Amino acid sequence: MRTLYRPAAVAATAVLTLGACGGGSDPVATQPAPRSVACPAAVPSTASCLAGRDSEGAYYLIARPAAWNGRLVLHAHGGPNLDAPTAERAEEDLTRWAVMVQAGYAWAGSTFRQGGVEVRAAAEDTERLRGIFRQHVGTPSRTILHGQSWGAGVAAKAAEMFTEATVGERPYDGVLLTSGVLAGGTRSYDVRTDLRAVYQYLCNNHPRPAEARYALNLGLPAGATLTQADLTSRVNECLALDKPAAGRTAEQQARVRTIERVLRIPASSIQSHLNWGTFHFQDISSKRTGGASPFGNTGAVYAGSADDAALNAGVLRYGADPTAYQRFAADTDPTGRIPVPVLSVKWIGDPTAFVELDAYFKTVMQQGGSGDRLVQTFTDSGTHSYISGPTYPTLMTALLAWVEQGAKPTPSGIAAACPANEAAFGTGCSFNAAYQPPALETRVPARSRPQ
Question: Count of domains in the chain?
């Protein structure tokens, strides 16, 4: 259990003052006022919370510590969920990130207006919430945009979309990206395209031979009614992921090992990636890209199976539709044009957002002219959803020192600073200051892409 941290009284510059409208895609003056609500149990009992639903339909939740340090963490959540948003999602997010409130920061998170894989809309919803906070809570001395997992892509896109030039003020002072899916939709999801092809080659039950055929890179045809429970049942027929390795047949275990070696994902992550490559791909192709798929595996060479020649000859091949690819890229891919400091962290063993995605993001930032504004850190332990309690306050302190004092952090300096936070936030410092991720193509095969 993490120890609650209650900071000393804030400086005069952090005293709560009502702010002007914060800009964004929707005028703050049109936003309904939030209501006071009980904070989730994980949040310090002295904090106050506000909840509401914005004019576009996104729910949101705001938490402010009693001794607010004047800084706001504006959160973009992971996922994304495919169902319509609910207020409960915001409560789940604040519960997970209560450490920010424990460390003295105000926190605000939106559920986004809709379910599904649409990055720019989520970025707009996040920026709209910034304005709501300013109107109904106060003007923060600093605003840090925090993106987690898929939300890291949302935060990177928001930092590109909303700048001093577009908003009339600097909306975000810095960006924190944690466990980020950072290579954009057109590259981050390649492993799921590959999994659909390799799984079908091995199992031939998604779809079954008697079912209507469709291009696997669509995920599912529009209107298809396969459920997640149905898919889980099919996967267990073929791979027995519901059993330990010793409980599988020799054939089932051989298929599992082939997927692990070829796609470099653990057995424990196969079902999740296959779910995303089915239902998220269906959302993308049927709702975002005009019925065509932005994903392909043409030219990908798979290696690591017992018979790579047979595997590469036998897997189904698909080319990304050029129009769908360009549309999806415009919505999801980073450009590397972020005008403020960016600090990131990734667990080296993350099976969901591979560490190699960060290597690609670094290249994009360099090509976009923002390479000097990026510092990347990596940890030896953690989970995709949450690395450890002291990790995040350590990163926030380093990022704010960069913003406010021009003291650009280093991985070694962050690693050295982390243990001082363990008394307040629990153990879990595992920064690896020397680690550098390999190129994305060393993890996921290169392939042909539309020009």
Answer: 2
